[in-house]
Specification:
The chain is α+β, with helices and mostly antiparallel strands. The chain has helices spanning about 1-15, 25-30, 55-70, 75-90, 95-105, 120-125, 130-140, 155-165, 215-225, 230-240, 275-290, 295-310, 315-330, 340-345, 350-360, and strands spanning about 35-40, 45-50, 190-195, 200-205, 245-255, 260-270, 365-370. Strand 5 (about 245-255) and strand 6 form a beta hairpin.
Length: about 375
């Protein structure tokens, strides 16, 4: 009976495959001179993007509007298996993937940031085509869509074509927004996993969202501690004490549209323990609270930040991505062009103030990966 069902399913699957034009959009984009066709999903948004010659603006409008106008999820089950395999690769079979999932689950108790972007195995396996259609109908609506176009185009023509092509979309109510607010953490939380892995140490602190006035100061703290071989964590933990093979820190984990984490992590060097790494890392964090950053060190990371921002805007794609992010996360794309002034205004006292407020035992989550014996 099972073999008969398998044969019937294979036949139906073969017939269904005839209805699918594999990678048809990719071929159209490539033939028209387009490059970089891709999509990404993060904790904050899903982005679809590619670059076209400026004289293909109307084709872009046609393709992108059709993509979301009335899609048919024909290859749902194949893609479901692809996602399950991706989760196995990046999380279930990855020590650091397992730790990240457990770490976020400990650091967040209410906010959706506690859940992995890809989902859990049982959710992916239990997903139906109807579930996907309902999600699409709820969230892929005009009021939840933001478009950024950068290039040699006339704004009036962009608006005219957008009205023609995207004007076909029916107005829909704005989808449900994230309203959950993560309560203030009141004590240190810890996660320890024993896995077949090198030992890792992680330490995270709750930090404000992207649109908070202090967000840029957290970026500076991340640069002071871990931007390059002149950074404090590298010089102390890797170069001088040789406790770690690498040590990094950054803000905006796992996303930054909402209040998030500033995360520090280090790969322990052979012959040393995660506790030694944790103690040394904490000492560098505490220095930010007790010793003002020198003007020279602050100017160095501010110069790096300015250069990094300007480099990111040097391409049309980089500019489009940045405009999109600022519009969605701050409410106005013009805020992008105020960022240089925000960087310039940071003083050593700001670093010390934010460090003192943030880096407390009550606000701390610790993660340890310990080698599993055998």
């Amino acid at each position: 009976k099972a073999k008969q069902l398998q044969a019937e399913f294979a036949k139906v699957e073969s017939e269904a495959a005839k209805l699918v034009e594999q990678n048809e959009m990719g071929r159209i984009v490539e033939q028209a001179g387009g490059v970089g066709l891709n999509a990404t999903t993060s904790t904050d948004a899903t982005r679809y993007f590619f670059s076209f010659p400026a004289n293909k603006l109307e084709l872009w409008m046609s393709l992108e509007s059709e993509r979301f106008l009335d899609p048919v999820f024909r290859e749902f089950y194949k893609e479901q298996n692809v996602i399950l395999e991706e989760r196995r690769l990046r999380t279930d079979n990855s020590p650091i993937g397992q730790m990240v999932e457990a770490f976020l689950d400990a650091a967040f108790k209410v906010h959706p940031y506690r859940r992995p972007v890809i989902g859990y195995n049982q959710d992916i396996s239990g997903l139906t085509r109807e579930d996907v259609q309902q999600f699409f109908d709820r969230y892929y609506v005009p009021s939840n869509l933001t478009i950024a176009i950068v290039g040699d185009v006339r704004p009036a023509e962009v608006k005219r074509l957008a009205t023609i092509y995207f004007g076909r979309y029916k107005a829909q109510p704005k989808p449900p927004q994230v309203t959950a607010v993560e309560p203030a953490q009141t004590e240190t939380r810890e996660v320890t996993l024993k896995l077949k892995s090198q030992p890792w140490y992680l330490e995270g602190y709750h930090a404000p969202a992207f649109n908070d006035p202090d967000a840029v100061i957290y970026d500076m703290i991340g640069d002071i501690l871990s931007s390059g071989r002149t950074s404090r964590l590298y010089k102390s933990l890797v170069e001088t004490k040789q406790l770690a093979l690498s040590a990094q820190g950054f803000t905006g984990f796992p996303g930054n549209k909402f209040p998030n984490l500033m995360l520090f992590y280090a790969l322990t060097a052979p012959g040393h323990t995660v506790e030694e790494v944790g103690t040394a890392l904490r000492a560098e964090i505490e220095r930010l609270k007790t010793e003002p950053v020198t003007s020279e060190e602050l100017e160095r990371v501010k110069t790096q930040a300015r250069a990094g921002l300007l480099r990111s805007l040097s391409s049309n794609m980089g500019m489009a991505q940045a405009l999109l992010e600022y519009d969605v996360k701050t409410g106005d794309w013009r805020n992008l062009f105020k960022q240089l002034d925000r960087i310039a205004a940071i003083a050593p006292a700001d670093i010390q103030r934010v460090a003192t407020k943030t880096f407390t035992a009550e606000n701390r989550t610790i993660g340890r990966i310990l080698p599993k014996e055998g």
